[in-house]
Amino acid sequence: MNKRSFLNISIMLLLFLSVTTAQDNINFEFDYARYNYDSTASNLELYYSIGQNKLKVTEEDSKSIVKANLGVKITNKGTGELLVDKMYRVASPVSSVDSLRKKENLIGVLSFLLPQGTYYLELTAQDGVDTSVSKYLNEEVEIFPYTRQMMTLSDIEFASRIIQQSQNTESIFYKNTLEVVPNPVGVYGMTMPMLFYYAELYNLASDTTGGEFMLNTQVINSFGGKMFEKSKQISKKNNSIVDVGVVNTSRYPSGTYTLYLNLIYANENFGVSSQKRFFVVNPHIKDTLVAAKSNSDMITSEFAVMNEEDCEDLFNGIKHIASSSEIDQYESLNSLDSQREFLFKFFTSRDPNPASPTNEFKEEYFKRIKTVEAKFKTFTRKGIKTDRGRVYLSLGEPDEIEYHPNDYNSKPYEVWYYNSVEGGVYYVFGDLTGYSDYELLHSTKRGELRDDNWQRRISAN
């Protein structure tokens, strides 16, 4: 295996027909995969997609361009050490207004060598012209050196295409004779039917039993149904090899799926596995078996009796945790039944333990909504539409709340602390009108309103 250079950072404009229409200020998604480097570190590749259709066009050197900033922070969770804190900038020419309408995305890859540990990743994408147009994403990831003592698999990278035996060795997506163009959004179907994937297999020669390896590939839907499967023998001739493949999703019904790579001994009940979830949008296709099961479960659930107002209220409650593609999908629905089905599937797809009779995620989120309506409802707004309600639904109960209902020369305000978010953040809410409608005045969390002089707004003088 060739080793990717440390901090190999580049950006390339590619035509990417996205199925999402962002409700965020900016279309931005990222994905990652971990690969072997040496006995002390692993190579973390970050793949990102920034939609240029939401970027402002500007003129430079008599050319129309769009610009984007990508901020990256990587913090060691155990020690608190900030290893990476950089802002990367890119400019891309815009041939015409039509090119923006086609939703061309800025697709890129960043590479980092990291020693063993747990890391907190923070990525912020900004419009290079108007930095107030931005989106913040974060993820916690564990880095571990791939042991040399037994066979193992890397993470799976999803791609929009893979060019084998590529001669374009200068491409930022070139590795191991392949040009792997990532798909950080992880959405396939009508506009991108072919799912390409890339993974690396390690330490194959370390096994001395003489048996053969089998690589089993499966696609499983959200109900546990098998959509695709194939198996092949893996030789031990080379200690490390690359596996690439393609899955045709053109006939898959819309929904959530998981790709599994299972590396197993041919004659033993033992192996290792790597898996990654992806999404399919094929509104013109229905799976009768899945639809029947889904409908059976749905009509016995609380969603079946929701009216239009109930659905709208619940949707407003989940917008804070839904993806931009999910928001777009819901807002395109034109019937009450389809809205009920969407909400049912939204929570079903997030069930941490589908085999259990209780959906713990749904129960917890419904509990949050109930709390928000009880505590933060005002004369004019439901709790889910207030600033405190939005934050509570997104982050849950604060670790600590400072109440200031009667400070001298100050309007009522509260300070909420979340100690485990971004290394510790806080929110300041103030009752500026005197009707218990607390507005967000200031927050240290990335992507939120920041006003270091917020005290002036609550002054009673």
Report what the structure shows.
This protein is an alpha+beta fold. The strands form five sheets. Strands 10, 11, 12, 13, 15 and 18 form a six-stranded antiparallel beta sheet that branches. Strands 4, 5, 6, 8 and 9 form a five-stranded antiparallel beta sheet that branches. Strands 14-20-19-16-17 form a five-stranded mixed beta sheet, with no helix packed on it. Strand 12 (174-175) and strand 13 form a beta hairpin. The chain is 17% helix and 40% strand. It is built from eight helices and 24 strands. The protein is globular and about 80 Å long.
In brief, what are we looking at here?
The protein is α+β, with helices and mostly antiparallel strands. The protein is built from 8 helices and 24 strands. It is 17% helix and 40% strand.
> What's the main sheet like?
6 strands, antiparallel
Task: Give the overall average pLDDT.
Answer: 84
Distance between the termini: 68 Å
- Which ranges are low-confidence, i.e. pLDDT below 50, for 5 or more consecutive residues? 1-24
Number of DSSP helical runs: 8
Number of β-strand runs: 24
The coarse silhouette is globular
- Percent range for β-strand residues: 35-45%
Could you say which structural class the secondary elements and strand pairing correspond to? alpha+beta
The Rg value, from CA coordinates, equals 24 Å
Helix content: 10-25%
